[in-house]
């Protein structure tokens, strides 16, 4: 069993990339399973199951951050994929937090970014990019060559070790390079660890307190004129 976790902002083309990746894996005789993690609505699992006949599932994170939900369910998902006779588990996560990394040691981390999203996007997505193994840049046909080069440079500035793969996700042009990364990924170990260090900050807003103003909260708080500090016991 090999594992690939695909993250990225909304509308970047994550599902389109994975759709072509699934077709490539099936053509090579490598059966994949697909897991979608989203907050409150998703239909990608149903679409891919109908098109390719592969095992698919979805999980709604609800009150959990999608990245945290991924940590909770990934062990069960790997067991499910193995039981279904699959050789690769593809996980697509909404990854909305931007402070966390959804990737695990022992799996391939893929981030999908669209070239039309602005030159500064690579500086804004944090561990979703900096801890990834591969950055797939989509919608490359909608920007100039100069803009593509600047976008690549910004990715390399933020994540010098990430491998950049430009792709036309609509037609699958460039999928071979990404499929090659799947093929060379080592088998997933029995014990998985989250890649990177998750944030240690906790606050009373996360547990449902609605009052406005830091004076009403405890834990890690932030005032307009001060850096983050800790208040309370």
Description:
The chain contains six helices and eleven strands. The protein is an alpha/beta fold and 233 residues long. It has two domains: 2-194, P-loop containing nucleotide triphosphate hydrolases (Rossmann fold, 3-Layer(aba) Sandwich), CATH 3.40.50.300; 200-233, no CATH class. A hairpin with a 7-residue loop joins β10 (219-221) and β11.
What can be said about this structure in brief?
This protein is an alpha/beta fold and 233 residues long. The chain is 30% helix and 21% strand. The strands form three sheets. A seven-stranded parallel β-sheet has the order 3-2-4-1-6-7-8, sandwiched between helices. It has a two-stranded antiparallel sheet with strand order 5-9. Strands 10-11 form a two-stranded antiparallel sheet.
Largest sheet: 7 strands, parallel
Mean pLDDT level: 92
**What's the CATH class of the largest domain, please?**
Alpha Beta
Which class of secondary structure composition applies to the elements?
alpha/beta
Listing every helix as H and every strand as E from the N terminus to the C terminus, the arrangement reads EHEHEHEEEHEHEHEEE
The number of distinct helices, counting runs of at least 4 residues, comes to 6
Strand content: 15-25%
Distance between the termini: 45 Å
Helix content: 25-40%
Number of domains: 2
Low-confidence stretches: none
The H-level CATH homologous superfamily of the largest domain, spelled out, is: P-loop containing nucleotide triphosphate hydrolases
């Amino acid at each position: 069993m090999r594992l690939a976790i695909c993250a990225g902002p909304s509308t970047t083309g994550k599902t389109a990339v994975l759709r072509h990746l699934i077709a490539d894996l099936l053509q090579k005789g490598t059966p994949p399973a697909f897991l979608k993690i989203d907050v409150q609505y998703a239909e990608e699992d149903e679409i891919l199951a109908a098109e390719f006949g592969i095992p698919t599932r979805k999980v709604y994170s609800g009150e959990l951050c999608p990245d945290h939900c991924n940590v909770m369910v990934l062990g069960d998902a790997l067991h499910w994929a193995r039981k279904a006779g699959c050789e690769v588990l593809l996980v697509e996560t909404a990854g909305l937090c931007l402070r966390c990394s959804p990737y695990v040691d022992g799996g391939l981390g893929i981030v999908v970014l669209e070239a039309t999203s602005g030159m500064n996007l690579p500086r804004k997505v944090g561990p979703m990019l900096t801890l990834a193994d591969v950055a797939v840049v989509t919608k490359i046909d909608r920007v100039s060559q100069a803009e593509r080069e600047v976008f690549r440079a910004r990715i390399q500035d933020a994540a010098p070790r990430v491998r950049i793969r430009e792709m036309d996700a609509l037609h699958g042009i460039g999928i071979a390079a990404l499929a090659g990364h799947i093929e060379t990924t080592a088998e997933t170990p029995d014990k998985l660890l989250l890649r990177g260090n998750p944030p240690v900050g906790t606050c009373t807003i996360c547990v449902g307190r609605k009052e406005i103003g830091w004076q009403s909260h405890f834990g890690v708080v932030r005032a307009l004129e001060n850096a983050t500090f800790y208040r309370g016991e």
